[in-house]
Design goal:
The structure is a single chain. The chain contains 10 helices and 5 strands. By secondary structure, it is α+β, with helices and mostly antiparallel strands. Helix 10 links the parallel strand 4 and strand 5. Helix 3 crosses helix 4, helix 4 runs antiparallel to helix 5 and helix 7 crosses helix 8. The radius of gyration is 31 Å and the shape is elongated.
Length: about 325
């Protein structure tokens, strides 16, 4: 495949998933199309099973999982090299500082013992003192730069769930406040994966997390103009103000159907884990009554799950 073909296929990939052709997205697309059998391409296939598009959050998660380690290793080698060189430079400046300090003290003692030394000797002592101060400043600067070579990692987004990148409860506060703006009503809709505990027991928590990620991706694409909230481990919700209850119900049913149609597989062996479904509950609420609407929607979702799942109540 020529460079032109790779570039064209990468741009087609971004257009298919409606992703901005930013440098990072373009690099991601090249990595996917350039290695069809790689773990990255298999993860992309799992995320897009059933015709789903990749979201920006999904791309970020895939990059961090499959591409970032190699970059981190490269950076780690570079950082270790620079750190070593900075330490060596610091040692040199430290030694030079002590040499000039010792020489300055010796020359100062000679001047004190022989007051009739020529002016050039006194000037030399002054220049040594200046050099000593400059070396001390340089040593401090090297230490400061050395300590800043490997910056601390940026803090995690406190308002986002680390697994799915959905808003967590603290991040949801802004969404809920905006839903109350203007005194308008809202629709609360909650979702949960059916029998997630059984999946965790049979395949392990890592597979269960992958299922949750796939489910969150489905919800985000179905409600692509709303902020997804992960309310608890296996509970996701939307607070919707711009859709009627009937329109929200149609989208929720579409999300359940899309997720049930996905054929989720184990990443290592490709073994299918069987049909996985989800349940949902919906409730309308007036401004300032989000607590009541959430309770009602969660109760409706629990009822749907108790009736076998793969359905919407409320």
């Amino acid at each position: 495949m020529t460079a032109f073909d790779r570039a064209r296929r990468a741009l087609n990939f971004l257009e298919l998933h409606r992703l901005d052709p930013s440098p990072s997205h373009y690099e991601f697309a090249l990595a996917v199309i350039g290695a069809p059998g790689s773990a990255l391409s298999e993860a992309v296939a799992a995320h897009t099973d059933g015709g789903l598009r990749l979201t920006v959050a999904a791309v970020q998660a895939l990059v961090e999982q499959h591409l970032s380690p190699r970059r981190e290793q490269t950076l780690d080698r570079r950082e270790r090299t620079v750190m070593r060189q900075a330490q060596e430079l610091g040692t040199l400046t430290h030694d030079a500082h002590h040499l000039t300090a010792a020489l300055g003290r010796d020359m100062g003692a000679m001047v004190e013992r022989a007051a009739d030394l020529p002016a050039a000797a006194t000037d030399f002592v002054h220049r040594l003192s200046d050099a000593e101060r400059e070396l001390a400043d340089l040593r401090n600067e090297v230490v400061r730069l050395r300590d800043n070579i490997v910056p601390a990692p940026p803090p995690a987004d406190a308002d986002r769930d680390g697994l799915t990148q959905a808003l967590n409860r603290s991040g949801a506060a802004g969404v809920m406040a905006r839903a109350d703006a203007g005194g308008l009503g809202h629709v609360a809709v909650t979702f949960s994966v059916d029998a997630l505990d059984a999946i965790n027991d049979r395949y392990g928590r890592a597979v269960g997390d992958n299922v949750l990620n796939a489910f969150a991706s489905t919800l985000q694409q179905t409600f692509d103009d709303e902020e997804l909230i992960r309310w608890s481990g296996n509970e996701f919700l939307f607070i919707i103000r711009d859709l009627t209850a009937d329109a929200t119900r149609l989208r929720a049913e579409q999300a359940l159907a899309t997720f049930a149609a996905r054929r989720l597989r184990l990443r290592g062996s490709g073994e299918p884990i069987g049909r996985v479904t989800a349940s949902a509950g919906i409730a309308e609420g007036a401004a300032g009554q989000q607590e009541q609407s959430l309770i009602a929607a969660r109760a409706a979702a629990a009822l749907a799950a108790s009736r076998g799942g793969d359905q919407l109540e409320g």
